[in-house]
Amino acid sequence: MCGIVGYIGSNNVKKALLEGLKELEYRGYDSAGLAVMQEGRIDVFKAVGKLNNLVDKTAAFDPKGFAVGIAHTRWATHGKPTEINAHPHRGDHSFVVHNGIIENYKSLKDSLIEKGVRFISQTDTEVIVHLYESFLAQTKEAFRAFELTIGAIEGAYAILLIDETVGKTIFFAKKGSPLQIGEGTSWRYFASSDAPLIGVCESAIYLDDGSWGYMNDRDIKIFVGNATVSPQKKPLPLTRSAAQKEGFRFFMEKEIYEQSRAVGETLTSRALANVVRLDELQEGFLDGVESLRLCACGTSYHAALSSSYLFERLAKIETRCEIASEFRYRDPILRKNELFIVISQSGETADTLEALKMAKRSGSKTLAICNVDNSSISREADAALLTRAGVEKGVASTKAFSTQVTVLWLLALYIAQNSGALNAEDLAREINAMRRVPSVLAIKPERHEHIRRLSKRYLHGHGFFFIGRDLFYPLALEGALKLKEISYLHAEGYPAGEMKHGPIALADPELFTIALISKNLLKDKMQSNVEELIARDSTLLAISSERLALADDLIEIDEQDHPLLEFFEMTTVIQLLALEIAIRLGTDVDMPRNLAKSVTVE
Does 201 qualify as catalytic in the annotation? Predict the structure, then answer.
């Protein structure tokens, strides 16, 4: 959610900032802006809508030589998407960009207004720059003023601030929102993720929560509290090739096709012939664990819910699933013999990160399932299992979901293997099925073309029901989410057995039901539920390895001997169906309206 770029150097500051923002578009935004400081003067440009609008606005701006710059893509939280509300926000002589939420901004704003400060935006962010200048007027020392500013604000933030009276310096602070520093041969960057840094910086410094300080052309000073912290540099990949579309129409389409390779990476060195190895977990890590609690949001929650069936069925361990945004506020009872597992693609999901911190404070052992090494969640947890999905730029997660489910399946087998819940023969059967997942995820061109042609029948109506049973109920939730995210059509996921408890009242020819029918799990029960809908004249699209006589349409999957192989094959089907419907409706598939890739605010 939102994106920050900062730059100090002599290599075309405007280009560096705009290209950095381009790499952060996947996070979601509704406006953008930049500020460039040279020789004590700051030029500012803002635009509503796509980044191209900011590019057009800055077309005649051509800064030369050494410069300091900050830039931002905004996703509106306080105030509508307008140029006035876009970042950077200005004081009399300083400018700020900010990701996150300042929770006490109203009281700070009221206090500043009483002192005669004039606000022009509706945002919480503007408080930061006026507060800084107020403290500067008192202390006459910029660094102290920034320190006092950070001490006064409450909430989640990543902040970059520049001041005409200081020059050649960017002040920064991080708490609860991602921020890292990249270093090249003669320039330095700030960014909200690795994406803008790859290919232009050799290494990165990943800032911990509570970090603040300043960077100039000579030095980087990082503090946590009053203590100085030595920067820990980590190498970055050399090229951005993994983040390009490579001939696909959309990043989402490319990432659907990449799932086979991504899951192969997930399984490498972990799923061996007859044993599961998770080298990231130290020996004895699971000692004393009697139950599991999985906590996540959105697609990651659906992966958690899917895996809960596996943990109880295979590992015979009690498992609960939590929506992180609800879990945080209900005074949950946490136990020390419970393993608390958080799941996040970005590793920066605000609600999930705060739930993790709650679990740690309670004394629970914690584990992160994440795609991003060095992310806040990966660093906060006691241990982390990386999904190895690679860069995912489409806002609607695809390969993140399939790799998360794979890692959770691996963990279920690892627990079962250690506890003896599965005998050697059953464990080998599970591992054999798991090792076949990459081939199952490989997209067949003829199936994609069938889905593309079929999609034209599903562009109207008053909604979609995705239904399934057992493992396929969470997959139905995920199918509905994918469709509504990128097509803006109303869709809901339901356990098929619950349809008769209310939802079936909506059944008619204009209600499209997508039925996920497994040959290996509750097939007869599922067919009975489907027949109830057919009897009410609902339009039915079956996803199954077998033909259903009265179904209106069929997307046929291969016959499999393990339910999870059906699960993964159906995963690609529901993703492609959502994609093709959205394309026909002309929506922005990779960056759907109102959504952000990394949700770093509540």
Answer: no
